Give the backbone structure.
Amino acid sequence: MIYGAMKFSIGGSLKLAFRPWVEGIENVPAEGPAILASNHLSFSDSLFLPAVLDRKVTFIAKAEYFTSPGVKGRLTAAFFKGVGQLPVDRSGARGAGEAAIRSGIEVIERGELFGIYPEGTRSPDGRLYRGKPGGLARVALATGAPVIPVAMINTEKIQPPGKVIPKLMRPGIRIGKPLDFSRYHGMDNDRFILRSVTDEVMYEIMKLSGQEYVDIYATAAKRQIADAEKAAKDAEKAAKADRTGKSE
């Protein structure tokens, strides 16, 4: 009930304002379970994809979105519940991963659509990063559900990280053909199989999105960018101090 109302109000408004274009929507089954594996460019990815589909898509969201105090916290929690997000405690890396996997399996067992971002976090620069071999592959192999690769296009230009008010422009969504990994069913503890499944999905996302692929994790790339920015600031401070010292 809440989801239907939120989808009608938010989804309808998004489609009217941004007019997203979609290719391959026929690849999403009208019924039955499936995993939608998408690249991740913007916070708005979790809004645009469900907006163009007739079916509910359940994504994972960090638990803090559901537990923040005050009126703003309650509104935020109601919003995320309304758009089909599930809370997962990310305080411990391994615990968070296991919780996400359990949640994904539960969604699939209900015969619904489970949305996941294999990169694990938003791309820091618009490129496609190495997929993490845990959640996506383990849910797929444990359930036998088909994996549908999805490419979000230009959403990072609409709402870059840190930007609250989005820019009005058309995002795109390309949906690929379902991938069948039933040949690996029950092998969800084999790390080589998990890596192979994840890489195959990421390759399909790369073809759909046209992004440059980078064979490191996005979290590592973010650390490199942060370290480079810090080094640049430290160098600038040192140069300024050196100039000040010489002028005296």
